[in-house]
């Protein structure tokens, strides 16, 4: 086998890798490529063998102290040859001394531990049809509010992701963000993202369970009865319990792991924006 070339990924190649993610059953959004890539264009990597992409990974630097690893895929034809692991090590160099987070499938947890990652919890995906229920205090987000919404998410997750949310929270044909405003400005919000199959809600940030439930039903009203998926991290039991009350199933879970100190999460209830960028 020719020695793989480890290099940065182009935006066009990211579109191909997102298609790989769809083939793996990860169900990416219809409009993920641009906000992913623009968060950190230097944070996407491929291993190239004889002119073909053999493996891919992202290590996106959100802040001087935090990065997130995702999109770790090796093409089936190249698995078992050490190509993916070589790319893994190459890409982690991009994070420097930053803490690196990831959401990994549980059966790979021991492999991640060997690279210095420590389990900090799990993320459960809840999936099913949610009754749409518009709410008088829920309205579309305004572009001028996006920095404040990003700050709300940072207070909840413990990590600022300003560059990512600049694109992610802006409305497109495939993504809509709604805010909960009882007359004093946004106190919570949720983004609905159309995917290859159904919709995903993320992020969702709310001060209390009732606000979270109102936002969940309000964004579900935009889906016309299609399936909805919500990725709920550990520590958000009220939101997870409510998803189960609604009859949503848990098709899979991921282990949330960190290499370096884990961020301190806030008191808000939340759902994860995307398992690829945190």
TrEMBL record:
Domain of life according to the entry: Bacteria
Organism field: Thermohalobaculum xanthum
InterPro entries: Acyl/Acetyltrans_Enzymes, Acyl_CoA_acyltransferase, GNAT_dom, YitH/HolE_GNAT
Name of protein: GNAT family N-acetyltransferase
Location of the N-acetyltransferase domain: 4-136
GO MF annotation list: acyltransferase activity, transferring groups other than amino-acyl groups
Pfam families: Acetyltransf_1, Acetyltransf_18
Lineage: Bacteria, Pseudomonadati, Pseudomonadota, Alphaproteobacteria, Rhodobacterales
Gene3D superfamilies listed in its UniProt record: 3.40.630.30, 3.40.630.90
SUPFAM superfamilies xrefs: Acyl-CoA N-acyltransferases (Nat)
